[in-house]
Amino acid sequence: MKTLTSLAIIMVSLIGLPAFAADDSWDSIRADLYGTRSVQDGSNVIAIDAPYRSPNDARTDLAAQVVAPVGLKIARVTLVLDENPMPVSAVFELDVPQTSFFFDVTMRVNGPTPLHVVAETADGQLFVAETFVKTSGSGACAAPPGTDPKLARATLGQMHLAMSDALPGVSIGRVSSLITRLSRMDLDISHPSHSGMQIDQISMLFIPMRYVETVKIDLDGAGYVSLTGSISLSENPQLGLSVPGDTSRVSVTMTDTDGTVSKVTRQFGGF
Questions:
Q1: For residues 48 and 51, what is the distance between their CA atoms, to the nearest angstrom?
Q2: Is 80 exposed, middle or buried (0-12, 13-18, 19+ CB in 10 A)?
């Protein structure tokens, strides 16, 4: 299995990909990520929740529920927006493989694009599901920031954590789920997520690239999941994840591409 570092290198190398036909783009991305490894149909493993047409290309909610085949566990989930400048948009690396995993994240969708979610099991099997997202326009990754860069820097790295005792879309019996049920953790990150393609509206110069590179999440003192981000993350990204229902303490460490490190810890009552 590739490390998070090697995956980040692949993300950067794919920025320069030309706008191929949709199938050609995915074939190229898949080959860069997985070589000649078999990628199986994941329509019975992965359920994608994405809008038919994005109402806000600069901030589109994209979600997926992954349930491992019987006897297997999920170790990594990759979100690919084929036609984005940085197609490999988010990679979730689970410290301890899980039988199921849910994510919900706000993304820039640069233009009409196929969307692929790839789940990798602990034994190295790959499953993929896909859909297509239309956009209201084009060029979301180059759209001017919604916040003045100086004001954005003042709050950069601030994070807010919340927990709910039920994961939307997951139906679980009340009695049987006391130990095994999942909760939803929500994380709001204050960060401008500069793509390197945006122009400062005053100086008319390109704003240097600076985005959320990694988010490491620990539950009750143990590693749970690490997210590798990209310029596809929206400004002030929001992230939702499934976590074990009995989680009582969450710690988050965010590192951006400039080396800024922010941390937050919150104690919950447990669910």
A1: 10
A2: buried
pLDDT of residue 16: 42
Nearest in space to 218 (alpha carbons), one of 257, 182, 185:
185
Tally the domains of the chain: 1
247 Cβ neighbours under 8 A, 6+ residues apart: 163, 183, 185, 219, 220, 268, 270, 271
Nearest to 265 by CA among 165, 213, 187, 154: 187
- Counting as low any pLDDT under 50, the low residues of the chain are 1-21, 170-179, 271
The CATH number covering residue 138 comes to 2.60.40.2470
In whole angstroms, give the CA distance from residue 71 to residue 68: 8
The token pair at 82 is 């084929």
Cβ neighbours around 33 below 10 Å, total: 23
Q: What is the rounded distance in angstroms from the CA atom of residue 196 to the CA atom of residue 86?
A: 11
Range of the domain at 147: 4-267
